Amino acid sequence: MAFSLGPRAASAGYRLAVFDRIGSTNAEALARARAGETGPIWLVAAEQTAGHGRRQRSWISPRGNLACSVLEVIDTSPAVAATLSFAAGLALEAALRTVSLEARMRSPGSENVTFHLKWPNDVLAGGGKLAGVLLEAETVAPDRLAVVVGTGANVAAAPEGMPYPAASLRDIGIDIGAEDLFGALTDAWAEFRIVWDKGRGFGEIRRLWLERAAGVGQHVSIRSDSSTISGLFDTIDKDGCLIVVTSDGRRVAVSAGDVYFGAAASVGAT
Questions:
Q1: Together in a domain, 243 and 263
Q2: Range of the domain at 233
Q3: Where's the BPL/LPL catalytic domain (predicted)?
Q4: If 0-12 CB within 10 Å is exposed, 13-18 middle and 19+ buried, where does residue 142 land?
């Protein structure tokens, strides 16, 4: 089965570049933007050898897993563009639900799996990290940003030796291919990209994201470099910052960091 756009993405004017093997789909998308590519275009690879996540952490995607990026050139500020990552998380969660349902229809009796969004950019399932989103942006003209949203998903296998639990779709009983997830993702992206509407629809994106979020109302610790903030995960604000209510009643807005929930929160804080 070959990678292809979903029908909604194709009708919305997205184009597609497919690679057998590549260092990083995000890096390739940014290079194309610097060379004048304006998108919208999806880039997907059967194998990614030099991908990365937040804080330059390695994200290698072997064959069978999904590594892809979408390039959009938009006229908005970097701060507003950053909220597009929440639309990307919603699109990824929706795509995972779609392929999960399709897998259950093919194999009646398969377990119903619930996916949760972990701030700021992960999808959890089966007790581990299943997928992640990385947004990168560069100015390519006055008031024009090349925004690249990369997605990595553990379809066939989860990495070992990670500092956090990881899961794959195969681990949790969902037998689909990376090509299936990619097609569903491109269609879901086309939908949530319209809802986001250059940031004007972030209020709705925020509402939908919170409905699917992991850990709301629970104890949480966020570690960023040398500092740690602990308290209750209350919400995300209009800028996408995580709002933590500390033990002394302060409401603290956190813009970046590694999140730990529940029992793991005390471990993450050490």
A1: yes
A2: 219-268
A3: 40-139
A4: exposed
Strand order in the sheet with 227-236: 251-254, 242-245, 227-236, 219-224, 258-261
Burial class of residue 211 (count of CB atoms within 10 Å of its CB; 0-12, 13-18, 19+): exposed
- Judge whether 2 lies within some domain: no
| Number of structural domains the chain divides into | 2
Residue 116 lies in a domain: yes
**pTM of this prediction exceeds 0.85:** yes
pLDDT in tens, the chain (270 residues): 799 999 999 999 999 999 999 999 999 999 999 999 999 999 999 999 986 655 545 566 789 999 999 999 999 999 999 999 999 999 999 999 999 988 888 876 556 789 999 999 899 997 799 999 999 999 998 889 999 999 999 999 988 877 678 999 998 989 999 999 999 999 999 999 999 999 999 999 999 999 999 999 999 999 987 789 999 999 999 999 999 999 999 999 999 888 988 644 444 433
Last residue of one domain, picked from the residues 211, 244, 260: 211
Q: Are residues 237 and 112 in the same domain?
A: no
State whether 131 and 184 are in the same domain.
yes
Instruction: Of 78, 76, 26, give the one whose Cα is nearest residue 52.
Output: 26
